[in-house]
Amino acid sequence: MVDWTRRMARRARDGGDPLGGILALANAEGVLNFSGGFPDPSLFPTGELGDITRRLLDDDPGVALQYAPSNGIESARHAMIDWLSDEQGHRAADDELMITSGGIDAVTLIARTMLDPGDVVLVEEPTYLGAVSGFAAHDPVLRGVELDEDGLDVGALGELLAAAPVPPKLLYTIPDHQNPSGRSLSEVRRSELVELCRRHGVLIVEDVAYRHLGFDGTASPSLWSIGPDVVVQIGTFSKVFFPGVRLGWASGPAEIVAKLAVAKQNSDQCAGALGQRMLEEYLRGGLLDAHLPKARALYRDRAAAVDAALRAHFAELGEWTAPAGGFFTWVRLPGVDTTELAAEAAEHAVAYVPGAGFFAERPDAEHLRLSFSRIEVPEIEQGIAALGAAVRGLGSGARR
């Protein structure tokens, strides 16, 4: 028998599977599931999508059922440009936006386009584990920049950049309702961050996956609207439309977007045309704007339930963030290895994501991420209570 593992590339042999376990729980039953950032299926616009799909199949099969250009169907791109312009106050030129197959596709396209082995990539510490693995596949040096209550520590970033012998290639940041911490970058820091990276020639990759899910419906200026010359904004419709369609965008300097489109020709070639046309019709009809308040209200109620349950069951065990939007609460349990705790939690039929995988440079096992997006309010209290029991039930070997 051939040992195929020995024939694999080093990145495949040595790499883990940070998202596989989370995605495996997408449709799990019998589990109080705080793991993945899955939107609630009750929000999927099935009625409107049925009408749109039937219309496209009748009137536009030659486009909707065909291959699409690598940068996206022109009319769908223009619909996205219009929507982003209305929402962020900055309008991309026609050659400054492309359609991607979700947010992670944009990450991998940027990594493939911008990075040579050994290049330095800055990420928030902690940050989205899918981005960490997406960048790591291209053999960069990953450096972490700490977060505080106001988001990315721009002062610490400035010190890092001043001491760097060669400017880092790029900085990846999630400024709105960050994954996993739930924190947002303050408005003052946004301008400071753009100016700092402009001065040092560092490309900002701004991930706005949760920007449109602020519980009060407001949002600070995007980094892209402040500094379109130094920012590539990437986004996804998986959280606010539906994830099965796998659609997102990348918008930034035209010379970068053009190369991202070339890179896409060597990956999946194009995002699905039917999904693009469905989304275009949904945006043009004002249906997404009408849908977002309902989504915000549902997730706001669930975040409040998580906070109340943590106050009831974790007050003496640790600390946690109180997000103003998005899907996640970030919990710190001093002295507890949350990777080991996961097995004990599973015995109580509770699933969450241990924190260590969210750190690119300095792993921290005392944190865990709770996603409240797909678990209903009555189950939240039950799940947090069970998780508290799991923490208390840990043997001395699980504590450092």
Automatic annotation (TrEMBL):
<keyword id="KW-0032">Aminotransferase</keyword>
<dbReference type="InterPro" id="IPR050859">
    <property type="entry name" value="Class-I_PLP-dep_aminotransf"/>
</dbReference>
<dbReference type="InterPro" id="IPR015424">
    <property type="entry name" value="PyrdxlP-dep_Trfase"/>
</dbReference>
<protein>
    <submittedName>
        <fullName>PLP-dependent aminotransferase family protein</fullName>
    </submittedName>
</protein>
<dbReference type="InterPro" id="IPR015422">
    <property type="entry name" value="PyrdxlP-dep_Trfase_small"/>
</dbReference>
<feature type="domain" description="Aminotransferase class I/classII large">
    <location>
        <begin position="59"/>
        <end position="387"/>
    </location>
</feature>
<keyword id="KW-0808">Transferase</keyword>
<dbReference type="InterPro" id="IPR004839">
    <property type="entry name" value="Aminotransferase_I/II_large"/>
</dbReference>
<dbReference type="Pfam" id="PF00155">
    <property type="entry name" value="Aminotran_1_2"/>
</dbReference>
<dbReference type="InterPro" id="IPR015421">
    <property type="entry name" value="PyrdxlP-dep_Trfase_major"/>
</dbReference>
<dbReference type="GO" id="GO:0008483">
    <property type="term" value="F:transaminase activity"/>
</dbReference>
<keyword id="KW-0663">Pyridoxal phosphate</keyword>
